[in-house]
Specification:
7 helices, single chain
Length: 231
């Protein structure tokens, strides 16, 4: 279902309320046992996919230490990195978010902890809430061998601890380019806070971030409109 055509029929409303209710419970999880060492670089990047990029972007825009979070596509080619094409589910792309962060303020492991805790449900295979298809899959796109090691170790850690009621479905896909999404997708949660999809599926994620990661929460989001979009 294309989200901009998402209508609140009785069935859609019930489905969305149910998902929102699940999200509102939140999930407290332990931090990763393996994390990156403090980096000398001024900035680092992470690329994460967890369903609709509107909500994932919104979560990280409200995370301290994040300098920019851009909605886009990863996993496929540049030629098919177009919303209408990606929506067909055959491009290899996943809706993803490129996060530029200050490693002196927040670590890659902390970003992953937020990802697996409040940004999405990592046990859902090729879907999130009302959205279905491989373009909504749960995927970490590591930007280095170190990130890949941390992500894989954390998935194993969480599965071994039986944190969730099902195994984690998140894939780790290295060496994939990221392509920014169309301008109208950027800062969507902030610009459209009363849009029904945002209200039922994404605003609970922001509340969970504030509740479960109070020390990492920032009230004023880091908006794309206030920072340059770069590949």
């Amino acid at each position: 279902m294309k989200r901009h055509l998402w209508a609140l029929s009785a069935a859609a409303l019930l489905s969305s309320v149910s998902f929102a209710a699940m999200a509102q419970e939140g999930l407290s999880i332990p931090p990763p046992a393996v994390d990156e060492a403090a980096a000398a670089a001024a900035t680092e990047t992470a690329v994460l996919a967890g369903g609709c990029f509107w909500g994932v972007q919104g979560v990280y825009q409200h995370t301290k230490g994040v300098l920019n979070a851009v909605s886009g596509y990863a996993g496929g080619s540049e030629a098919t990195a177009v919303y209408e094409i990606v929506g067909g589910g055959v491009t290899g792309h996943a809706e993803a978010v490129k996060i530029t962060y200050d490693p002196k303020q927040i670590s890659y492991g902390k970003l992953l902890q937020i990802y697996f805790s409040v940004a999405h449900d990592p046990t859902q295979l090729n879907r999130q809430g009302p959205d279905t298809g491989t373009q909504y899959r749960s995927t970490v796109f590591p930007q280095s061998a170190g990130q890949a090691k941390i992500a894989k170790a954390y998935i194993d850690q969480l599965d071994a601890a039986k944190i969730y009621s099902a195994d984690i479905a998140t894939t780790v896909e290295p060496d994939k380019a990221f392509y920014p999404a169309e301008d109208y997708h950027q800062d969507y949660l902030t610009l459209h806070p009363t849009q029904p999809y945002i209200v039922y599926n994404d605003l609970p994620k922001i509340e969970n971030l504030k509740k479960l990661f109070a020390d990492d929460y920032r009230d004023d989001p880091a908006l794309v409109s206030e920072a340059p979009v770069s590949n």
